[in-house]
Write a structure and sequence with these properties.
The chain is mainly α. It has 15 helices and four strands. One of its GO terms (molecular function) is transmembrane transporter activity.
Length: 373
């Protein structure tokens, strides 16, 4: 203790944070000192640890469920090889499966964002119908590929913006807001088209849908789908926006207290969904060469089903985009098998409903314990 003319000083010697170890750290440090002579060591991750970490990052933490979906796909391939050996495994049929999956697959990417964020969007099919009708109306007025693409995306974004404003700032329940949009968009598409099919006569658009059209041997629509998947995965797993999205879906109040602008985050969810609907509507125009008010029928059911069996929790806060993609492939393959074996579409709808129920029951049993991205 230091002293001065006025008496002993009140200053006390200060200890650094390392001078008072906690019991756990002290014991660990003593043991480490005995074994290493006081040197601090760090055990590097093993090769298996690095591989498992990379796999978890790729699959968003839902690796086990995703492997299960891969197993289901392999089982469906086996069934197809047995029931329709000459048709199912042909290259042309596999291209058909991927092409058909691409349109609903893009919609499912947007739906995955919405459900992870704690919302729901029942209007995706109607938005696709409205966008195809509006864009093909431009096509009949000699607008080219760029005009059709711009119109489709603009309609999708506009509808998504309205959904987002109603949910985030109007404080409407997502189910009600998007249900109202579904009815309005269907009615507007019928009003614009007059119930007639709008046929596209733009060669630059139709050429993208030709079976002979390939880029490195891959159909253009499949390439668009893959690009949307990659971009969506990067946003969910590699950006601050993605982390905030999971926080919003897991606990909105905690997200608000953490400084996240909850209303703006919710608004962007429906913008993403609307953007995906706009892209999907353009792809549907390319695929069918037309637009009609019945397009996108039950797309909301197909997208939600794919998201659920892919492992995304309906209450939000957990999900994987890779799982949703696998879910789309499972449902599209089932549809293809039914078509090849001349089974009625009613049976397919029953099977789809049963798969959704089973997937939800599995989620309830697992309790949604893990958070994935």
């Amino acid at each position: 203790m230091s002293t001065s003319a006025g008496g002993p000083s009140l200053d006390k010697p200060r200890r650094g944070p390392e001078s008072t170890p906690t019991p756990a750290s002290g014991a660990a440090g003593t043991a480490a000192a005995r074994s290493t002579g006081g040197a601090s060591t760090t055990t590097p991750p093993t090769g298996d640890g690095r591989r498992s970490g990379a796999w978890a990052r790729l699959t968003g933490g839902g690796g086990v469920r995703n492997l299960g979906l891969v197993g289901v796909l392999l089982l469906l391939v086996l069934v197809g090889a047995i029931t329709s050996p000459d048709q199912f495994l042909s290259t042309s049929n596999l291209v058909v499966i991927l092409t058909q999956a691409s349109v609903i697959g893009v919609v499912t990417v947007g739906m995955t964002f919405v459900i992870i964020g704690g919302g729901i969007d029942l209007s995706v099919g109607a938005i696709v119908a409205l966008a195809t009708v509006w864009a093909t109306t431009l096509a009949t007025q000699s607008y080219g590929l760029g005009g059709i693409l711009f119109c489709a995306i603009a309609v999708g974004l506009g509808c998504g913006l309205l959904n987002g404003v109603l949910v985030a700032y109007g404080r409407m329940v997502p189910f009600i807001a998007t249900l109202a949009m579904m009815a309005s968009a269907r009615g507007l598409s019928l009003q614009i088209s007059g119930g007639l099919t709008q046929v596209v006569q733009v060669d630059s658009v139709l050429s993208l849908g030709y079976r002979e059209s390939r880029i490195l041997g891959i159909p253009p629509l499949v390439i668009i789908w893959v690009a949307v998947i990659v971009l969506g995965w990067l946003v969910l797993n590699r950006t601050t926006y993605g982390r905030r999205l999971f926080a919003l879906g897991g606990n909105p109040e905690a997200a608000r207290l953490a400084g996240i602008d909850v209303r703006r985050q919710r608004l962007t969810l429906y913008l993403v969904s609307g953007l995906c609907c706009g892209i999907a509507s353009f792809m549907l125009i390319v695929l069918t060469g037309s637009g009609q008010n019945t397009n996108g029928n039950l797309y909301e059911l197909d997208a939600i089903a794919a998201v659920i069996i892919g492992g995304t929790l309906l209450t939000g806060g957990r999900g994987t985009l890779i799982g949703s993609v696998l879910g789309v492939l499972v449902f599209t393959t089932i549809s293809n098998l039914f078509a090849l074996n001349n089974l009625q579409s009613a049976v397919q709808d029953i099977a789809s409903g049963a798969i959704i129920v089973i997937a939800v029951l599995i989620q309830r049993q697992s309790g949604g314990q893990s958070r994935a991205g």
